[in-house]
Amino acid sequence: MKRKAFLTSAAMSAGALTIRGNARADGDVDVALLTATDTIHGSLTTAAAGATPLVLIIAGSGPTDRNGNSGLGIRPNTYALLAEALRQRGIASVRYDKRGVAASSGALTSESALRFDDYVDDAAAWLRLLRKDPRFSALIVAGHSEGSLIGMIAADRAPADAFVSLEGAGRPAPVLLREQLKPRLTPALYARCDEIIARLEQGHLVPNVPQELAVLLRPSVQPYLIAWFKYDPAAEIARLRIPITIVQGTADVQVGVEDAQALKRAAPSAKLVIVPGMNHVLKHAPDVSSQAAILRGYQDTSLPVEPQAVAALSSAFSAG
């Protein structure tokens, strides 16, 4: 049975941060971050006895759990595989269920109450807490997909020694959404979609959304989108004064190499690692021209995380 390490966050009070419990050196232990609403639950993978670097793994968009799996049917197990790959390199990690997801479901009061900044606050609280743990010699923030933007903002607000963007966007969310949606929608439906996105960019709620767009733009998720849309990843990464590594695969059908290049332009000292054949969930696609080959990694847990991505993350401290 896994032992538990309970971590208490200043997110719920002005009191001092505390850590109670010891982690095993040979596997995961349960960790918990108390917030003003409820507890964020996660897993700590320890690497060895003595002080080691630690990576805080921040999940991407949607109902994604600590292992990188989603209730929407995406189950690559990416974050669990990444944690094990890092452990084999002597690096510890913490990954956690996002608020509202899996064991952290109680931390979300309602969908309409969720804001993008809640995720940033959660990540920053983990960093402040982990900084006080003497088992960890340094902290790396590794944000995947939407977690890249969350991670770079959190790393600017809380203590971190390095930042790694894994398949992170380099352009504002409205730009990417329009780019992704235009070829999938009829001209008339895209025109309405574009109008709704423009209203959200201006900070206005849109009560009447076509049913075809409800999955993405329903009124209950619009407050989250408004908060998300105000951030430009290029501007946020430019604020960081720590070593930065940008990792991008050429087989990513969600975020492109141009996004990684945009981040690199904004942070010229960053290390840019382009991984041939890697898809959005950090798995290798043997045939980048085959949609089936690219998407296989979204479901096949037997496929490992791309070793080049692991190597880039492991060497993040020397990226600056």
- The tally of structural domains comes to 2
In sequence order, what are the helices and strands, one letter per element? EEEEEHEHEHEHHHHHEHEHH
CATH topology of the largest domain: Rossmann fold
Corresponding CATH superfamily of the largest domain: Alpha/Beta hydrolase fold, catalytic domain
Strand content: 15-25%
Task: Tell me what the CATH architecture of the largest domain is.
Answer: 3-Layer(aba) Sandwich
C-alpha-based Rg, rounded: 19 Å
Write down the oligomeric state: single chain
What percent of the residues sit in helical stretches (DSSP H or I)? 25-40%
Number of strands: 10
The secondary structure category is: alpha/beta
User: Which class of the largest domain in CATH terms?
Assistant: Alpha Beta
The largest β sheet comes out as:
10 strands, mixed
Average pLDDT confidence is 90
User: Reading side by side through the largest sheet, how are the strands ordered?
Assistant: 2-1-3-4-6-5-7-8-9-10
Low-confidence runs? 1-26
Tally of DSSP helical segments: 11
The span between the termini is 40 Å
Shape: globular
Explain what this protein looks like in three dimensions.
- It is a single chain.
- This protein is of the alpha/beta class and 320 residues long.
- It has two domains: 4-170 and 240-318, Alpha/Beta hydrolase fold, catalytic domain (Rossmann fold, 3-Layer(aba) Sandwich), CATH 3.40.50.1820; 175-227, no CATH class.
- It is 32% helix and 18% strand.
- The protein contains eleven helices and ten strands.
- The chain has helices at residues 78-88, 116-131, 146-157, 173-181, 187-201, 214-217, 222-229, 233-237, 257-266, 291-296, 307-314; strands spanning 4-8, 18-20, 28-34, 39-45, 52-58, 92-96, 136-144, 162-166, 244-249, 271-275.
- The chain has a ten-stranded mixed beta sheet with strand order 2-1-3-4-6-5-7-8-9-10, with helices on both faces.
- Strand 5, helix 1 and strand 6 form a beta-alpha-beta unit.
- Helix 2 (116-131) packs across helix 3.
- The longest helix is centred in the middle third of the chain and has 16 residues, at 116-131.
- The radius of gyration is 19 Å and the shape is globular.
